[in-house]
Design a protein that fits this description.
- The chain folds into two domains: about 210 residues, 3-Layer(aba) Sandwich (Rossmann fold); about 230 residues, P-loop containing nucleotide triphosphate hydrolases (Rossmann fold, 3-Layer(aba) Sandwich).
- The protein contains 14 helices and 15 strands.
- The chain has a seven-stranded parallel sheet with strand order 3-4-2-5-6-1-7, with helices on both faces. A six-stranded parallel sheet has the order 8-13-12-9-11-10, with helices on both faces.
- It is about 30% helix and about 15% strand.
- Helix 5 links the parallel strand 3 and strand 4.
- It is α/β, with parallel strands linked by helices.
């Protein structure tokens, strides 16, 4: 199937082709006709499946087909709500790229930056607004934005928005929109909270679900590296240098941990920066741009900060520390192995994290191959210590993700988790691909297979 076969215009197909895409992904093939027909949609799809194009392409087509006069200020006709600043910037970039041959304008409205340029931009023509909820409500309070003519609403990453405590903000925004409009909801999981939100928002929606819940991507080669807690950074530096890893996204539990690790890697001669909610928007944008371009070798991130990182061929993801919530492991490693590209997900696991690893393997229904790097064998005399509030033997708050209105990450305390995580695509048939060697199967250290089952 081609994009033109879905009913998209020549201008949009031309822009898509120039981006290097020739065939729609499953979510695009199913969502685009629904959106073009004007109906509401509830879609289960995580980042990396091509869902952004699944709603931006048909929205561009619908708005272009009934474009208003370009003279004077025009009303905002499409509103896309996004949980994080980085993801908002990337979605709006896609809108501009796909709509480059159309007479439509878009803008990003995010926190963490000066509000005045946004106010000035709103005085010009804006057809499509991509916004984080907190900053959008700041504009509402200042009466600098008019949402009374919105024809299409998109809630993207709805599960994450609820996790981050945005539900009250979303309800406030919904009250400002026209009752007659098209609504599109995208979520990695359909928790009870998401279903309740959809019931009050959507009108006889089409239902699409293209990814099996809590499955890890088939193109991701996963492995575990056992190591003592105090030698994790040393092992990470060794792996990066030994195998010449470039573009390595490294996850830590806390903001403090991300900062400390980036500083240590830099001292080891590995260019690294940290990205998290306490960083200024300028610093986050710069770090992400350098990482995408390949100038920066390692990006150390907390879970929420990494939510908006969308790099089509990211080769390496490393869990420097396993997440406390097993579903977050699925989302983390889903940063790689995207859009048909292969990827590697490595986890540095100390004795304290054995239970976390067990919970992850139970969730994904597979044992992750273990690779022991010579010289980094764990000391059997070291005893496990509890992980309290996301930390081992030191400070740092649980999950280290903070935020607030300026971060595009909620106004109050995060809402309780809905008990479901983000779900990348279906697993490789026949189980995981065995790793051979401690780099990328290059024949160095042996894979240590566990004996016996795990009671599943």
């Amino acid at each position: 199937m081609t994009f033109s076969a879905l009913g998209l215009s020549e201008e949009i197909v031309r822009a898509v082709t120039e981006r290097g895409y020739t065939e729609p992904t499953p979510i695009q093939a199913q969502a685009i006709p629904v959106v073009l027909a004007g109906g509401d949609l509830m879609a289960g799809a995580q980042t990396g499946t091509g869902k952004t194009a699944g709603f931006t392409l048909p929205i561009l087509q619908r708005l272009a087909a009934s474009a208003k006069s370009l003279s004077g200020k025009a009303p905002i006709r499409a509103l896309v709500l996004i949980p994080t600043r980085e993801l908002a910037a990337q979605v709006e970039e896609s809108v501009r790229e796909y709509g480059k041959y159309l007479k439509l304008n878009s803008m990003t409205m995010i926190g963490g930056v000066n509000i005045n340029p946004q106010i000035q931009r709103l005085k010009t023509r804006v057809d499509i607004l991509v916004a984080t909820p907190g900053r959008l409500l700041d504009h509402v309070q200042q009466r600098t934005v008019d949402l009374s003519h919105v024809e299409i609403l998109v809630l993207d990453e709805a599960d994450r928005m609820l996790d981050m405590g945005f539900i009250r903000d979303i309800k406030k925004i919904l009250a400002l929109l026209p009752k007659q409009r098209q609504n599109l909801l995208f979520s990695a999981t359909f928790s009870d909270e998401i279903k309740a939100l959809a019931d009050g928002l959507l009108n006889k929606p089409a239902m699409i679900e293209v990814a099996r819940r809590n499955a890890t991507a088939e193109l991701i080669e996963q492995r575990i590296y056992p190591v003592d807690r105090q030698r994790k950074r040393e092992l990470l530096t060794h792996l990066i240098k030994e195998h010449n890893w470039h573009q390595v996204l490294v996850f830590t539990r806390t903001k403090h941990g991300a900062n400390k690790l980036a500083e240590q890697l830099d001292k080891d001669g590995v260019p690294a920066l940290a990205i998290h909610g306490n960083k200024s928007q300028a610093a986050r944008t710069r770090a992400l741009a350098e990482f995408k371009s390949g100038k920066l070798q390692v990006l150390c991130a907390t879970d929420i900060a990494a939510r908006g990182i969308d790099i089509s061929e990211l080769p390496h993801v490393v869990n420097f520390e396993l997440p406390n919530v097993p579903e977050d492991y699925v989302h983390r490693i889903g940063r790689t192995g995207r859009a048909g590209s292969e990827g590697e997900a490595s986890s540095l696991v100390c004795i304290d994290e054995k239970k976390l690893l067990h919970d992850i393997e139970r969730l994904i229904k597979r044992d992750i191959p273990v690779v022991q790097v010579p010289g980094f064998e764990p000391d059997p005399s070291i005893k496990a210590e509890p992980i309290l509030n996301g930390q081992n033997r030191g400070g740092g708050q649980n999950r280290g993700q903070g935020g607030g209105r300026g971060q595009g990450q909620g106004r109050g305390q995060p809402a309780p988790r809905a008990g479901a995580g983000r779900a990348p695509s279906a697993p490789r048939a026949g189980g995981s691909k065995p790793a051979s060697g401690h780099g990328a199967g290059r024949g160095a250290a042996p894979v240590l297979h566990r004996s016996g089952g795990r009671g599943r």
